[in-house]
Amino acid sequence: MAKSGGTTRTDGIYQALRADILGGRLVPGERLKFPDLSERYKVSVGATREALTKLTAEGLVSTKAHQGYVVRPLSHQDLADLTQARVEVESLVLKLSVQDGDLQWESNAVAAHHLLERTPFRDAADPDHPTDEWSAAHAAFHIALLNGCGNRRLLETARALRQEAELYLQWSVSFGNEPDRDLPAEHRALLEAAVGRDPALAQELLRDHIAHTAQLLISCAPDQPNSAEADIE
Q1: Which residues pair with 68 in a beta bridge?
Q2: Which helix (H) or strand (E) holds 15?
Q3: How confident is the model over 197-216, as pLDDT tens digits?
Q4: How much is the pLDDT for 171?
Q5: For 169, how many CA atoms within 13 A lie in the half-sphere containing its CB?
Q6: d(Cα 185, Cα 212) in Å, to the nearest integer?
Q7: Does residue 111 surpass a pLDDT of 90?
Q8: Largest CB tally within 10 Å, which of 30, 88, 179, 213?
Q9: For residue range 48-102, what is the model confidence (pLDDT) as tens digits?
């Protein structure tokens, strides 16, 4: 059955808003006003409201008193809390995924890694952030690794935490530029441990991978960048 025009418009602004948030074009703490968004994306206020509601449920948008919707504000403390949750939950889900995943899961993980390795990381037009394509391929690779887990509740929790973490990758221009870090090698090692059916090693590598990125962001990025509170008139 074909989608209605309203559903199509809502999906369209949802995808556009999500890409602009994860791509750093809408910055943490920025107010998301219905008239501005409706004009920017050429959709109705109703479609805009539905998209923002969905993004709020995903943790990419939040609501603040007297301000309405804002791009989720970031902070060192929030990142520390998120990292602790991810280290525990996501590494457990990966361990279960390696133990339980079937051949189709293994094939999907290999294919997702293949795409990630061949997707350009930087764009000359925006050298301070990963490309939208790389960010999407990166998220897809990590989700593919987790998808072998048979516990749906744990898997959904891990996916939600990963989605929130993607926003932090846009927080610092240092991500991917660390002289002592080989990000592609970390991803290859994760894949090899997974398809090699070594759950303990995969779990350890992922814990290190998550913690390393968080430590970089906390050390290089300001606390509460572009805080929405500064925009109150």
Answers
A1: 64
A2: helix 5-22
A3: 999 999 999 999 999 888 87
A4: 66
A5: 22
A6: 14
A7: yes
A8: 213
A9: 999 999 999 888 899 987 779 999 888 888 889 999 999 999 999 999 999 999 9
Q: Does domain 5-73 correspond to CATH entry 1.20.1250.20?
A: no
Cα–Cα distance measured from residue 169 to residue 130, given in angstroms and rounded to the nearest whole number: 8
pTM over 0.85: no
For residues 182 and 189, what is the distance between their CA atoms, to the nearest angstrom?
A: 11
DSSP 154-214: HHHHHHHHHHHHHHHTTS-TTTT--TT--HHHHHHHHHHHHHTT-HHHHHHHHHHHHHHHH
SS3 122: strand
Would you call 69 helix, strand, or coil by DSSP?
strand
pLDDT higher than threshold 60 for residue 185: yes
CATH value of 76-220 in 1.20.120.530, 1.10.630.10, 3.40.50.10710, 3.40.30.10: 1.20.120.530
The tokens 């808003």 sit on which residue?
Answer: 17
Residue 16: exposed, middle, or buried by beta-carbon count in 10 A (0-12, 13-18, 19+)? Answer: middle
The answer to whether residues 151 and 197 touch, using CB atoms and an 8 Å cutoff, is no
Domain chopping of the chain, boundaries: 5-73, 76-220
